[in-house]
């Protein structure tokens, strides 16, 4: 990232320029109402910064949901307009005109200086997700959106791992990272490349196979790993043939369990797995719930849906000792309150460790939702706005959205 231009590097060039900013407004909507504004708030510092340094106007572009190249009203970005108006105090011009028409450039030009222009959902166009330099329609799409600004700013960390047209296809000579993207990349890189120790990773989620690249990457960096969530049952089944009832078993991931454990042993990394479980005969609030240990296992017809109280205590002791904590993936099915205790206990342990001087990084997606729902965002060091992007960065991959920026 240090080899790429940031918005701070070119602040003297912003004066009287129209700035094209790719943001990630892929926010949750219920009946047209935005239920979590975190991603909108995350870009406000970048908007303030460009106007502070004299930008004439801003053009925002984003995606929302998966409309797959079709215009679907429930995926419109229009509900974001009043939020932006309220928190920027600026005129927001929403433009739904087809990006490939000649009229849209006129609309942008006629918008008063000091305004913010929000374009309609980029994924209403097939060309957005199907970037291909040999496709003339895609190249035309990229050329058209490149005309909407003088300077391009990528502030969409949540999609920086995607090779989409608005991420890698902009042909403006100045392409820089915004304040959010720069913060995300720098925080994650610096913390992981020069970690404080002990360095603890907490990895959850349903399938081992989804987290294999992450686990392999972390094993070469961390001192200890706590494994939880549904993926723990695949580990327990392979290691000790524990009964797992109707719990998730990842047959593809199971093939890699021994390899992961061998690599951890070779690197001197301690792997911690749950020793007791909250299980139920149904996956709902009204299920019959019981707590079992790993010797008894999960009864037939029951699902393991959270870690048990003894595991929470053990994990708390481990987390207390850590000086750097990276957490990606819930410890149980937190969406149902009966099975959220393990994830909440993990969060409170991480918060306490942070208060005692540890650096804590929450790796986006479901894990970020747990933090936001409990109102403890400011009680940890960093909550990433990315899901897949955070994972790929932690896996050591190079993000296409970073590669596409202008070199210093």
TrEMBL record:
GO terms for cellular component: cytosol. The keyword tRNA-binding does not apply. The keyword Metal-binding applies. Keywords: ATP-binding, Glycolysis, Kinase, Metal-binding, Nucleotide-binding, Transferase. One of its GO terms (biological process) is glycolytic process. InterPro entries: Phosphoglycerate_kinase (IPR001576), Phosphoglycerate_kinase_CS (IPR015911), Phosphoglycerate_kinase_N (IPR015824), Phosphoglycerate_kinase_sf (IPR036043). GO terms for molecular function: ADP binding; ATP binding; metal ion binding; phosphoglycerate kinase activity. SUPFAM superfamilies: Phosphoglycerate kinase. Pfam families: PGK (PF00162). Pathway: Carbohydrate degradation; glycolysis; pyruvate from D-glyceraldehyde 3-phosphate: step 2/5. Its EC number is 2.7.2.3. It catalyses: (2R)-3-phosphoglycerate + ATP = (2R)-3-phospho-glyceroyl phosphate + ADP. Monomer. Belongs to the phosphoglycerate kinase family. This is phosphoglycerate kinase. It comes from viral metagenome. The lineage of its organism: unclassified sequences, metagenomes, organismal metagenomes.
